[in-house]
Amino acid sequence: MRLSVKLSVAVHCLVFISEYGESAKVTGEKLAMSGGTNPVIVRGILSSLKKAGIINVKSGTGGATLALPPEKITLGMVYSALKTKADGCIFAKHTSPSRLCPVGRNISAVLDKSYGKIEKQFDKDLETITLADILADYHLRLREENKK
User: Fold this and answer.
1) Which of 13, 42, 76, 132 could cross-link with 71 by S-S, CB 3.0 to 4.6 Å?
2) In angstroms, rounded to a whole number, what is the distance separating the alpha carbons of residues 136 and 125?
3) CA 136, CA 97: separation in Å to the nearest integer?
4) Greater model confidence, 77 or 1
């Protein structure tokens, strides 16, 4: 699963956990059903979030809760928790340009430099958005939905 999709699923899970984690037992199965995602994928995401100290998961019976207040959880933290070395750069490059062509020989290094700048800015921007911001947007959307 692409990292961008994992990030979206993780944020979905965190919103659900924030909304229901203190009053109900939030399990991987419930989160998978809510997100329309395979429970195995959700469990992997929850494991990564737990290792990063973002959520708590009760042993045995299950049940996830936030380990930190929403204001302290940034998208950068979530992204970092999910990212593996295999994910590499957020931009994929074509893998077999011609070594006989000057553009083909050099494009990877050229793109690495540009993509590196973009990725650094992306990482900084992720740190400016918190789960509290996302929850505020979610609650606003609910209020607008209820007006209809």
Assistant:
1) 132
2) 18
3) 46
4) 77
Distance CA 86, CA 127 (A): 22
pTM: 0.86
The per-residue pLDDT for 97 is: 86
Q: Across residues 139-148, what is the average pLDDT?
A: 92
Q: Is 11 exposed, middle or buried (0-12, 13-18, 19+ CB in 10 A)?
A: buried
Judged on CB neighbours under 10 Å (0-12, 13-18, 19+), 90 is: middle
20-32 per-residue burial string, b: 16 or more CB within 10 A, e: under 16? bbeeeebbbebbb
Which residues are 56's β-sheet partners? 65
